[in-house]
Amino acid sequence: MEKRRIIIVSLLLIFILTAGLFIYFAASGQEESDNSKLNVAVSIGPQVEFVKAVGGDKVNVILMVPSGSDPHTYEPLPEQLTNISKARMYAEVGSSVEFETNYMSKIKSINPDMLIVNCSKGIELMPNTAENESDEVDPHVWTSPKNAKIMVENICHGLVQIDPANKDYYQKNRDQYLQKLDELDKNTTKTFKEKNTSIILVFHPAFGYYAKAYNLTMIAAMINDEEPSPQRIAMMVDTAKKNNIKVVFTEPQYNPKYMQSVASQIGGRVVFVNDLDENYLQNMENVAKAFAGS
């Protein structure tokens, strides 16, 4: 009886040890698999989709300015800067996004061996707004699908540079995503032709490149990153009334009170649009529908 109990206990211990080793090696394998991916850092949400579309299952994306945060004012957390030390590549927007002008020097010093890719290389930069007297450029290049295509090309070039063995994989993924961007551009053009939209009233001037691409006039409440004056709000109300506009727009990271004031004076409503969403294709379809419905 005692011998039988010893055998049972021994078998149980063997089972527990085997199961433990299986779990350990499975976890180690997963960690090894994750570590085999390229860590690629980006500044803003839309770049997350761009990098994932090209890099596929060979990349991990580190997003520096999280959803709902403002790239004009966001300060990176210590753990984010620690993650930067593990990155092989940083895809900067490269169009004077304020987060980058404030922190890229520090980011580069943390990981001097990291490849820096300028996603705006090849994009014709615009002045901040037609009404802005400063020499600053408009950083929101990604809102135009045509510009997004150039950004994706630059990202692909960077990935090939740090991982040439997977060049064909990256280029195939790039081509497939570029086709989706072409389709987005085509559908957006069609949407605005059908709706005959010409003016969009927004709080923050994030859609200048978008407006240019689709022959729209963007009028923003905020100029030079300053809160709108009563005169500015009155001008927007007057513009809305003269053009029978009943929908005005703001973004999730901003206080909607100014656009709510405009909406209340025109008997209209406020709609939220987001230029920083990580799901770029779907989000820009939603943006087109929102603007076209104004």
TrEMBL record:
Mark the transmembrane ranges.
7-27
Q: What GO MF terms are annotated?
A: metal ion binding
Q: Does the keyword Transmembrane helix apply?
A: yes
Q: Which Gene3D superfamilies match?
A: Nitrogenase molybdenum iron protein domain
Q: Does the keyword Ion transport apply?
A: no
Which biological processes are named by the entry's GO terms?
A: cell adhesion; metal ion transport
Q: Which Pfam families did the record assign?
A: ZnuA (PF01297)
Instruction: Tell me the keywords, alphabetical order.
Output: Membrane, Signal, Transmembrane, Transmembrane helix, Transport
**Family per similarity comment:** Belongs to the bacterial solute-binding protein 9 family.
* Identification of the protein by name: Zinc ABC transporter substrate-binding protein
Q: Which organism is it from?
A: Methanobacterium bryantii
